[in-house]
Amino acid sequence: MLMTQRERFLACVNFEPxxxxxxxxxxxxxxxxxxxxHLGKSPNDYFDMDRGHGAALRPPxxxxxxDYSVYHPGKTHGKDGFYIDGNGCGHxxxxxxxxxxxxxxxxxxxxxxxxxxxxxVSNHGWLDDKMREAKEDAHRMGRSAVIFVGHxxxxxxxxxxxxxxxxDLLTQRDWAEYILDRFFENNLRSAIAAARAGYDAIxxxxxxxxxxxxxxxxxxxxxxxxxxxAKVITEARAIKPDxxxxxxxxxxxxxxxxxxxxxxxxxxxPVQPECMDPVAIRKRYGKRLAFDGCIGTQTxxxxxxxxxMRKVVKxxxxxxxxRKGGLILSPTHVLEPEVPLENIKAFFSACDxx
Length: 354
Description:
The protein is of the alpha/beta class. The protein has one domain (5-57, 127-352): TIM Barrel, CATH 3.20.20. Helix content is 42%, strand content 11%. The protein has helices at 5-13, 29-39, 43-46, 112-116, 129-140, 153-160, 162-171, 173-197, 218-239, 257-262, 278-285, 300-303, 306-319, 341-352; strands spanning 82-84, 90-93, 100-103, 146-150, 201-205, 244-248, 267-269, 290-295, 327-331. The strands form two sheets. It has a six-stranded parallel β-sheet with strand order 4-5-6-7-8-9, sandwiched between helices. Strands 1-2-3 form a three-stranded antiparallel β-sheet, with no helix packed on it. It is globular and about 60 Å long.
């Protein structure tokens, strides 16, 4: 019997049989435009993608974001390819697709008082009306209600500066933890609101690894990041015990997989095959950890052939017994401009042939 997207998602992440293996992909703007022209319609509609739906907390009417321009002297938002995001980070474009140079507003801070005086945006008192409406809309459409509650480590280093934040973690932990707490508090409020609204899953995560290992020692993650994510999950589950938790990190995070499972994460993304072995991870954790991803954007998507794509999808699905749940197939990152359109079509057709 044909399932709705929500029924399929919940069956999959609960390791129950599915009518088809859930699958989706995302694209950079230039590739999305090219693919849409090729297909004659949006790929979201053409491929009937398995995508959830949701909306974040919203600021009340009249809310004004801080003026972060003082942290970027000589730069003007919207001029010469420069803009400032909602956390105050500057982004300088250089004409290479969607990539930007980060300019961290606290990169030159040399006192704790400067860290404390930074105008972090707080979502305390923000409204959940649109969040609740989006959940109702999703369920009415037969879609899962999901929401991304935010990053923690990634936002922290972007505001402070990458090298500066890593140095803080080792030499002045209170600086690093002060910044982490500002984002943790927002994530916690978003997760609690989503649980109260009846969402099916909350999405979280941080890129904490490179191709080979974590960016820092596992002990640093366990001391600084793990307890904060654990609190977010615990508080959400106290309200909605069956809410799923999706966690993203690129790279090889093998060293903290035990911790991820321990704190209640149920869906791991993207499980890069160039960095970790999905089959080995499944053998170790069984039904405690579903996967979302697994099809390489460093290998198969840009450099494989359509026949190789079909083989990769088929072999992985068979090895993980995907028809019994536990696997959402997707590229391990947003698809970049060099990905051949035929490989994208082969991915979806291979998924539907399982």
